[in-house]
Description:
Blueprint: H1 7-26, E1 31-32, E2 43-49, E3 52-59, E4 64-69, H2 76-79, H3 81-86, E5 92-97, H4 116-130, E6 136-141, H5 143-154, E7 159-165, H6 173-181, H7 190-200, H8 202-217, E8 239-244, H9 253-261, E9 266-270, H10 277-280, H11 282-293
Parallel strand pairs: 1-2, 4-5, 4-6, 6-7, 7-8, 8-9
Antiparallel strand pairs: 2-3, 3-5
Domain AB hydrolase-1: 65-194, 214-279
Pfam family, one: Abhydrolase_1
Organism: Podarcis lilfordi
Amino acid sequence: MARPRSGGLLLRRLLSQLSRSAQGGATLRVSQAPAASYGTSVTSAKVEVNGVRLHYQQTGSGSHAVLLLPGMLGSGQTDFGPQLKSMNKQQFTLVAWDPRGYGKSIPPLRDFPEDFFERDAKDAVDLMQALKFKKFSLLGWSDGGITALIAAARNPTLIHKMVVWGANPSVSEEDVKLYNAIRDVSKWSERARQPMEEMYGHDYFSKTCAAWVDGISQFAQKPNGSICQSLLPHIHCPTLIIHGEKDPLVPRFHPEYLHKHIKGSQLHLMPEGKHNLHLRFADEFNRVVEKFLL
């Protein structure tokens, strides 16, 4: 499938979506609590996992536990406001985490070694086990979708079901060109830049974004640009792949590859969806996800 070619257009689309993502999550007010509770309010706490104090939010009292995994520079609060607010609290217990170096899981500072996706996957699974969830489902967006794929492949007995969107199991040279177009955050619109600077401060935001570009780009040097392609046949849980047909960041080739190589997976296309489809079309997204999970 042909990939998008206009770097300037793609950058404008990306910045627009980043801004909407930040706005979508900014409406959620999070109450601080020393530990998570199983009520309808959203509570927040930290727990030590693999030597790091990881921040998470939790809501709902359902028997079906679901972990929400955010994207690059994301957090539960910024990336999953509509899900934490509106998904069925009687059926599900929702946990949205901040990966190490993101959101409120600082320190440590974020870095991107060769195995950073594997590290995030282990942290995510170990967090849920620390919270005493014996089995749980995964909702992974973008980088969080990649993390979810790895977690499901590595822990088949722990993962009930999985939903991923905006996730790519490999990185091409064309992808690298796109990533480099967002390296310099001073070129971002103020509307897109401001929420990130409010959360992280300019220096940390700028340095971490540039480091992410280098971190994700390193996979392009691997055979077939693979991030986790070899792990896909080891995913045995029911899997739903959602793709926005107007996503300028993740061409349809990526979800089709996932669908082909994850046995029994389902592919759901959203004609008007872009990269942040779960925020822009939250009601539709939540309905599709809940139907699949139940």
